[in-house]
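2024-03-11 09:14:02 DEBUG pipeline.ingest accepted 1 chain
2024-03-11 09:14:02 DEBUG pipeline.ingest length=163
2024-03-11 09:14:03 DEBUG pipeline.predict start
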Amino acid sequence: MAYPVFAFINNISPRLMTFLISILPVSELRGAIPYALTKGGLEWPEAYIFAVLGNFLPVIPLLIFLERISDWLRRYPVFDRFFDWFFKRTKRKGKLIERFEALGLVLFVAIPLPVTGAWTGCAAAFLFKIPLRLAIPAVASGILIAGAVVTLASLGVISFWGI
């Protein structure tokens, strides 16, 4: 039963796979760019563009609908617990956003660490009540910066912690 799924995945072009990986909330472009440059065989400009575009795709719907979706899903205990945990964690990690608002949101999304990407940035924009007109460009700017940092790190131009 799983074989057709794996066969389908193996037939996806590296550009589309990069785009799809970057849409996902956990991997985002932090997983998509290294995939594109290694297994995907893409050159860095293509890897960067497809990853940034894919990472930005869910941003506007998330910023517009996150409150309504979370309110609706909170009717179910499992989702209520999840959103409680996720929003508390995001608030705790969002001191930068709380202090510097939209600029803090740019920096929060730009930091290429786990759970500091566009998805969590959108949740933080919602929680810290950053207006949509500021949140969209802030998250987009953070994505562009994170994409550049991850690309440069993947190419070995920069390194972190001596690795």
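2024-03-11 09:14:41 DEBUG pipeline.report The mean pLDDT is 92.
2024-03-11 09:14:41 DEBUG pipeline.predict end
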